[in-house]
Amino acid sequence: MRLTRLICVLSLLFPLFTWAQTGSITGKITHVYTKTPIARASVFLSNSSFGTVSTDNGTYTLNNIRPGQYTLVVTAIGYEDYTKTVLIGHEPLNLDIELKDKSIQLREVVISTATRADWRRNYEQFKEEFIGTDKNAKDCEVINPDVLNFTTHKSKKVLEAYADEFLVVENRALGYRVKFLVKDFKSDHISGIISYSGQRLFEELPGSKAQKKKWQIKRDEAYYGSAMHFYRSLYKNKLDEEGFEIYQLKRTLNPNRPSEEVIQKHMDRLRAEQNSRYYNVTLDTIRYWTDMQNMSRYYKQDLGSVKYMAAEVCRATDNPGIYAITFPDCLYIVYTKKREETYFKDVYRPLTMPNYETTILSFLGNNPVAFFDMNGIILADGPLYEGTWSKSRLSNLLPVDYTPVNEQAALPVKSE
To answer: Of 95, 122, 125, 183, which is most buried by a Cβ count within 10 Å?
Structure first.
């Protein structure tokens, strides 16, 4: 995935109050009309490891929550899902919840001649783009793949997926069972953007002491240099200490390169004619469109030589614990404690810069600002990521309440 362009430079302010180390939520779950308690309802904070079930009298408690903004989710058989944004701070939060009976809603009926082979092909693409293809992904197993439904738009090269119940993935590389309610996964191969949303809950997998130690090491590896690590370092004004450098990147689109949509249409036509008995494509035509596809999207890329300070791109908002990141053009983020192993055609690298992990943030929309919380999690619509963070998938996903244990993982890489 690619991410974000921002405009404006604002000052960094810190809240004038003290957050408690942890917070809590308590309450009672009842029927909206009868007021009777609802037992065995699942209550959890999305994208975290905090979850429980309501008791026989409908009460629930979530304790020891790391401060920050979360989405509280309540699900129960026969009832509509309940979601609410909550801000956890130093004061206990009491929240009584009323659930409505679930209405029967039918999705739009689509007449399809898709075969099981089509479903399998779509599923393999979904797995690669949702879970990943790295070493950790090889240790991830989808427990219930049949809950997934797919829709394809071949002319637009778009794959969409959704599930009406939790997709369960066991990540044996990091030691988590992730329950993910996939709402609107979308992979657009023309724009190169993969997006999805949904509620998810992390549960610890059982393991021996030795296995848990290995999981902790892998979790720390996934954390350091990640977007979560960066945003936490940014609002704490610890970029240098944590190994991050940020610069301004200015880009000029390549006027000699056709749009991605035009290139893909010609490449599809060439492939179709190559498979046709009436093959009539010249070598020059194939070479031309291959060169167009391999050509950089950008004619010129200028990287600023002066490092940004945290205060130049980050500020506190009126909401306690919520921060805004904003900057002109693109933000060029370098993590100096890890080397990049993947080649990214459109990610500019100065010849004098070591091959550090690098991510470019940019925005597609007209609102050049993104908001994140104290856990280092982007809220609502976020920026586009190109480079290192674009590789991040479920295989390296950590709960928002994660804190690293092995500080040695943050030591600088050895010079080559």
So the answer is: 122
Kind of pairing between the strands at 185-188 and 158-163? antiparallel
pLDDT digits (tens, 9 = 90+) for 136-153: 999 999 999 999 989 887
Residue pair 65/401 in contact by the 8 Å Cβ criterion: yes
Q: Any residues with CB less than 8 A from the CB of 268 and at least 6 apart, and which?
A: none
The Cα 328–Cα 147 span in angstroms is: 43
Question: What residue type is 329 in one-letter code?
Answer: D
131-145 as b/e: b if 16+ CB within 10 A = bbebebbeebebeeb
Q: Which of 99, 126, 157 is the last residue of a domain?
A: 99
Beta bridge partner(s), residue 204? 176
Per DSSP, the three-state class of 88 is strand
Q: What is the pairing mode between strands 93-94 and 97-99?
A: unpaired
* Domain that includes residue 309, residue range: 3-12+223-252+301-410
My answer on whether 56 and 28 are in the same domain is yes
Q: Are 199 and 378 in contact (CB under 8 A)?
A: no
Q: Residue 376 region, left (φ>0) first, then alpha (ψ -120 to 50), else beta?
A: left
C-alpha 101/C-alpha 76 separation (Å) is 10
CATH number of the domain enclosing 77? 2.60.40.1120
The per-residue b/e assignment along 209-235, b for 16 or more CB within 10 angstroms, e otherwise, is eeeeeebbebbbbbbbbbbbbbbbbbb
* Paired tokens of 309: 């300070």
**47-62 residue pLDDT tens:** 888 999 999 999 999 9
Q: What are 298's strand-pairing partners?
A: 253
Distance CA 166, CA 297 (A): 38
Nearest to 220 by CA among 172, 170, 174, 169: 174
The answer as to whether 315 is a domain residue is yes
Position 114 confidence tier, pLDDT thresholds 50, 70, 90: low
Helix axes 260-274, 283-294, angle to 10 degrees: 150
β-strands 42-45, 68-75 pairing: antiparallel
**Contact assessment for residue 174 and residue 204, using Cβ atoms and an 8 Å cutoff:** no
Determine the Cα–Cα distance for residues 19 and 23; give it in Å rounded to an integer: 9
- Residue at 218 is within a domain: no
Enumerate residues 6+ apart whose C-beta is below 8 A from 257: 263, 292, 295, 296, 297
